[in-house]
Amino acid sequence: MNISLKFFQSYELCQGKPVANIQILVYEEFITLTELDLIFECSLGSFVVNGKDTGQNKLACHTDGTGEVSVSIIGPDVGGDGQLTVFLQENGRQIGIQPYHLKATAHYTLNFNVINDYAMADGIQSNTVKAILTGTGSGVNLAKRKLDLSVTGSASFEKGQIIQSTSVDTDASGNASFGLYNINQDGEAVTLTGFLEASKTAHATEQIHFQRNLDCDASPPRGGIYIRTIFTYSINNQQYLLRQRECDHLVTVHKLIAGGQQGEKTSAGQKWVNFYDLIFPFVLGEQQYIFGLARNFINTPQNNTHKSYWMIAKLDEKGHKEIVDCDYWDSNYDVGFAYKAGKGQFIYLHSKDKDSNGEYPYVIYEILPNGKMGKLTEQSSWDNFYGATFFFSMGGIEYIYIHTITNNNAFTYELSKDGKIGNKNTSNTWEYYYYPEFSYIIEGTYYYAGQRFYDNYWFVSYIYSGGVPDPINEHDNPWDTNYQYQVPFSIDGHQYFLRQDQSKDHWYITELLADTNMGSDTDSSVNH
């Protein structure tokens, strides 16, 4: 049997996708072959039956009384070249081949946005990448599109195993986020590659960086000095205590609970990309934010001449941060705090590096309601570096307290409603330099406290109406060591503070009482 086929093609659109309609005449010599059972197979797309996409690339049918049969093939929106192959059902013999071309109804572009880069290569920390699919054309469909991904080096798409190829589906907007892990403890840069499954022309590549795995337990810091940043914050009326240590960037978060206790750990062992030499919290609406500044930053831009990297991030109960704004500065800042003044939210930053006039600069920035950095509100300088600094609000007026080691001078200034440094409020010279210092309130009475920088003596004194600090009154019994970190917090109407030194883990929580009295220790590192 010497069977011949004639093909006739036409094209249309169906639901934004190209369709090839192919009519076939089957004959032998000059005689058409009727009711002949055939199998069709298409290499691109799938067959349409009764107006519906079958999703199948094989179709069984037969010629009609005139020896003709028609098939319709719907293809992907990106189009392409396909081939229709015809077989006899009875023996599977191939009797014809017809190429077809489906015109693209959409054109796509794939890009990667590296949300978190430079994670530590410990197999646990991850970089986060967002794949962004965009398109043009009448048939564009961004939802539930399959993206084929691959990565090089020792990177993996899964924690605890090496998976270097995977697929993800986009959401309704054409986005898909995923994590990347790495077990090369020396750190490395790897290449991420992605393709839209239906279109190899829509592809993207990106360099992803992993920094060397830092581990304080395996390599303790020199001299056993553990530098940290410590602060408290609150979410849904629950107080949390966050510590980050410099030697491996490890973040730990604990609940602070009634009775002045350090409660359960809520963090999962994450290590932030940078160690932030300066961190402080603030709240916008119901959302908890932090400002962080790193002097020795990992994510260094090309041709970098900057001295610091800053970020503003949302913070959750486990110490995970979502950066909403970041940039680089040509200055370092060593102390700072966030405060509300008037209707605005501001941050104050002060540097121990002299400016060109031999003074010590400070800046004040507004923070916008969405958490992003706003305009520079004030830029000026002090005559000395005032390392002991805190903010307090009293009687509807905001104040800044500053104290310097240079000559032991201490001042308070009002903060104006537009966030700027206002009038000088008080001027004092203490006998010694006290650092750190902090303020707190008990039953409407204001206090401030701190430790003598030279030894372990400490004080608690009043802040009187009008923002006037009482002269420092030291207590007779010094602490056992110098505590570089002192952080106040309040739970259930009781006032406490954490003090911690720079050893590996030595701290106390102590209750603060009215009338400049210090109560009992309510918790300590010995209990944990």
UniProtKB/TrEMBL annotation:
InterPro entries reported for this sequence: Ig-like_fold, Invasin/intimin_cell_adhesion
SUPFAM superfamilies: Invasin/intimin cell-adhesion fragments
Source organism superkingdom: Bacteria
Name by which UniProt lists this protein: Big-1 domain-containing protein
UniProt organism field: Xenorhabdus cabanillasii JM26
Phylogenetic lineage: Bacteria, Pseudomonadati, Pseudomonadota, Gammaproteobacteria, Enterobacterales
